[in-house]
Amino acid sequence: MQIQFLGTSSGSPSRYRNMSAVAVSFDSAKQWLLVDCAEGTQHQILETNLSPAKLAVICITHIHGDHCYGLPGLLSSMSLCGRSEPVSLIAPQKLIHFIHASLALTDVKLGFDLICHNVEELKAPLKLSLCQIEAIELKHRVPSFGYKITETQIPKKLKIEQLKADNIESGPHYNALQKGHDVVYKNITLHAKEYTFDSWRPRTVIICGDNEKPAKLANYLSDVDLLVHEATFTHADLLKVGTHTGHSDAKRVAEFAQQHAVARLALTHLSVRYHGPGMLEPLKREACEHYQGELYFAEDLLSLTIPKQSL
Asked: Which of 58, 143, 187, 305 is most buried, taking the most CB atoms under 10 A from its CB?
């Protein structure tokens, strides 16, 4: 499972960073997922191995432009690249209206079905073929959400000892069971769930939109391998700018991650005041002082691999 940052700036781009977009790809699937889509995201995709034609799920955290203005253009490009399979869009209702209006007013006809889910009405985890997605309500100036993304397409292994104990001899039915299919063997139905197990523990990441209250995530962290959270300012700078911005600072997020034993923390959505060589040092010092886990300060095109862990 890989997380690749396509944009890591807040508010506006700079020579060093584009605005918010994060790609999630999975070991056993060619399809991939995108969280947020700022202006210029499709240009960033050109710098990666990701194919627009394979983008299957798009999650938008909130309606601010630095998280969604690139989506109409990307959808159009996906269609031009030959995307024909349905695409799931999970987003606030206002953003869904914006997309439909943008496409209609520019006479764009997509070559695929765009299946829209209003995140504000998503009360239970959404089970898609690619992964499972759970929306987490955050605190910002407008409704904002985080997405808990759990992989589901994990290859199965056979419980060989149990098969032998039940006198089930080797044959083509072994292969069918391993693929997740129930089979009939000597007039008995063998259920794949009883004779297989996942090759590794499902990996889970949380990718957040803008959020001034990390505590909103407290009940969702028990099985999370990576938390991606904004750290727009240092603590001192946030006090100067004003908490009315609805953003977090590196100190607050680091303290929260340490308190809840988050294994890996990636900080992103960094104010332009910290862009450029050496400019991140105040943020880095602040976060490192309060968090002792695996810490990343996201740069554009940084790719993180979440390792597999046995069950």
From this structure: 58
User: pLDDT tens digit string along 177-236?
Assistant: 998 899 999 889 999 999 999 899 999 999 999 999 999 999 999 999 999 999 999 999
pTM for the whole thing?
A: 0.93
Please tell me the distance from the alpha carbon of residue 35 to that of residue 220, in angstroms, as a whole number: 18
Catalytic residues: 66
Q: How far is CA 89 from the centre of its chain?
A: 13
State the Cα–Cα distance between residues 32 and 54, nearest whole angstrom.
6
In a domain, 239, yes or no: yes
12 shares its domain with 99: yes
Nearest Cα to Cα of residue 152 among 292, 1, 305: 1
Note whether 300 and 3 are within 8 A (CB). no
- Pairing, β 87-91 against β 114-118: parallel
pLDDT digits (tens, 9 = 90+) for 98-129: 999 999 999 999 999 999 999 999 999 999 99
Domain count, the chain: 2
Q: Is there a contact between 47 and 301 (Cβ–Cβ < 8 Å)?
A: yes
Statement to judge: residues 46 and 128 lie in one domain? yes
Terminal-residue alpha carbon distance, the chain: 16
